[in-house]
Amino acid sequence: MRNNLKFKVGFYLVIALAVAVFIFTLMIVRHNREELLQQAVTHSGQLSEVLIKSTRFAMLQNEPSQVSQIISDVGAQKDIEKVRILSKNGTIIHSSQKGEIGNTIDQETEACLACHLNEKSRQASPLIGRPRFFTSPDGRRMLGSTAVIRNEPTCSNNGCHQHQEEQAVLGVLDIVYPLSTIDKRMREDTITVTGFSLGFIVLAGLLVSFLLNRIVYIPLRDLEEGAARLAAGNLGKPIPIRSEDEFGQLAKSFNSMIGALRKSRVELQNWGRTLEQKVEEARHELHIAQAETARSEKLASVGLLAAGIAHELNNPLTGVLTFSHLVRKNMPDGSPEAEDLDLVIHETKRCAAIIRRLLDFARKKAPEKTFSDINELIRQTAHLIDQSAQAEDVEIKLDLDKNLPTIWIDEDLITQVIMNLLVNAEHAIAGKGIITVRTRVKQKQLKSNKHQQASPMVEISVIDTGCGITETDLALIFDPFFTTKSVGKGTGLGLSVSHGTIRAHGGEIEVKSTVGKGSIFKIYLPVTSIETHQPDDVS
User: Fold this and answer.
1) What is the pLDDT of residue 114?
2) How far apart are CA 307 and CA 311, in angstroms?
3) What is the CA radius of gyration of the chain?
4) What is the pLDDT of residues 276-327, one digit of tens each?
5) Domain spanning 5-185: which superfamily?
6) Phi, then psi, of 117 in degrees rounded to 5
7) pLDDT over 60 (residue 44)
């Protein structure tokens, strides 16, 4: 029920209407209250003026009994609580309540303040001639009206009075009205206005419900039924258009969408007829993938062949090297035979080193990873070749990021990669040059997985000022047994093994080179959190 649109719209509209009517009702009640109070204040002022004029003649004739009678008659009226006249010193001279005659009230009250101010203060006082509202001791709301009885020439010159001419105020007329009648009238008005408001809310709610049903809910029902038919695959029946408003425009748009879907269905059928062509394209892509697989298998075959050759050559070379050392011990240094045998031993060791590289290429050792400080590995590796580099007048500079995180790697394999790059950079420099090793953290998207978003990678850059690499050679440098070095200077396996090592770590190795200016090799290794690799997962 609560999820029903009709219920929600009707509920919120009723709430909004009720709030608006409530505010309007409060305004009306407040206006009536202020109007009734204003009428009471006006009436009190008029009555005060009449009383002052009525008692004036009796006061001039010095007839206090007549004044008391007038006060008693007025005070006996239904809507008047009491009427009294106070002297300047706060003594009650006349009162409709006889028991309080002769009492002196506090001169700090509003009724007495007017008499005890100087003329300038009386003119500025907000209390004089203004009504006051207060609560009686028995809890009833009261309205008090105070009027000043001034000393006129007829009073000061009258022989029966002893008022001085400079005395501006003779006393105060105080009239107190109970507000019970006004409060009752206000309650009745509030009930009446509230009843009308509730009736208006009910009628307005019914009218709004009728209009919403006609203008909103019926068109929405048509749209709902049309959507259900569309979900069932029925594209033949359009939605009826009942108006030209937004719902009518929506119905037109829906019918247009149905027409577009019918057209799309026809196009889909036509596309199915061209599916064979799509399959052929997929077959061509599969052929390319198979070619890549064949290349990988060829590399694997080369590795097996290299392993076999290395195994077959390793045993006789070990024997040659062993017997050569034994024979060399019995020969004097400096003899032609000793020099020839030293050459044999040197070349035999070189062949053994080549065989070791072939075995490393063939075995493809699985990485044994730990969390490592790549900066420290670079420092150690650079230190190993620093002496040979200085001998060739090559300077090695390190620009390492101090905030580099530890990464999940095989230290031995990565050290071998860095060593291979540094040695290649040293060999590429003829004469004086600089090798710079830089580490940074960068966002990198691997070329091998373009569907994966960029992620944080540790970037290791090896920059040299050597001879550079041609574009033709750049496409081949990671192939096994490819080398630009002269015969006997290299096997062409170092970069191929390095490429495989970095790929086994989930990273990439890139190279940029300019002939005559130098080369830049960049290694990207993924940054992995410690939580990803718990100790029990480490092998």
Assistant:
1) 46
2) 6
3) 56
4) 777 777 776 677 566 546 545 655 666 666 666 666 676 677 777 787 877 7
5) PAS domain (3.30.450.20)
6) -105, 155
7) yes
Q: What is the CATH number of domain 370-537?
A: 3.30.565.10
Residue in 488, 484, 486 with CA at minimum distance from that of residue 519: 484
**Which residue is listed with tokens 């409709």?**
96
- Kindly list the domain boundaries of the chain, sorted by start residue: 5-185, 370-537
E strands of 154-229, at which residues? 169-178
Q: Is the pLDDT of residue 454 over 50?
A: yes
- The neighbour count for residue 498, using CB atoms within 10 Å, is 23
pLDDT tens readout for residues 342-370 = 777 877 776 776 666 666 655 566 678 89
The number of residues in the chain equals 539
Residue in 105, 101, 76 with CA at minimum distance from that of residue 88: 105
User: What pLDDT sits at residue 531?
Assistant: 47
Q: b/e per residue, 191-226, with b = 16+ CB within 10 A?
A: eebeeebeeebeebeeeebeebeeebbebeebeeeb
Q: 440 near 400, Cβ under 8 Å? A: no
Residue 39 has φ and ψ, to the nearest 5°, of: -60, -40
Global pTM reads 0.40
5-185 and 370-537 share one fold: no
Instruction: Tell which residue, 419, 418, 416, has the closest CA to residue 439.
Output: 418
